[in-house]
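Progress report, Aim 2. The chain analyzed during this reporting quarter is listed below.
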Amino acid sequence: MRRSAVFLVLAALAAGCDFAPVLDIETPPHEARAVLRGILVADSTARVRVSRSADPFVGSPRGQVPTATDAVVTLVRGGLAERLVLRSDTCGGGYEFDPDTGQSVFVGGYECGAFVGAVPLRPGETVTVRAEVPGLPTAEATVTIPARPDLAATETPTGPDQPRRIEAHFPDSPAADRY
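Predicted C-alpha cells for the chain:
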C-alpha cells in the first residue's frame, strides 16, 4: 500500500513536467518583398497574381492576400516586353459575428485580381515575369513554358436520370520538357 502511494505521488509529479525539448531559434526580422504567384500555361495568356509578403508572425485577417494593385507587371519574351493589365476581382466579404456587439456585421471583400496578358504563351518559349511594387525590391522569375499534356476523355453511358460520367486520361511521358 505504501509503495502504491509513493508511486502515485511520483507519477503525479512527473505528469506536471514537460519533457519535450525546447528549441529556441532567433528568427530574422521580416523583410517586405513583392510576391509573384501564377502558373503559365501554353496556348493561354499569362495570368499572374502579385502581392506583398506578409510577416509570418503577424498574419493577415482570415488568410487574405490582397493584390498589389500599384504593381507594374511586365512579361518579357524574345526581347519584346508586354505590360500585363490588372483584371480586378473581389474576394472574401460576408457576414461575421461581432462578439462585442452580439450582432452579425458585413465585412467587405479585398482586391484579389490578377495581372493578365493579351498574347498567348507558346510551348518551349522562355519568358521572364517582372513585378515592380513601389517601395519594394523588384520580383522576377524566368521559366520555359512546358507543352500541354495530352488529354483523352471518354463518356460512359449512364441511365436517363443519372449524372454524366466522364473519364479523363493524361498519358504521361517522362519527357524532360513536360515539368
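The first helix runs from residue 2 to 15. The mean pLDDT is 84. These observations will guide the mutagenesis work planned for the next reporting period.
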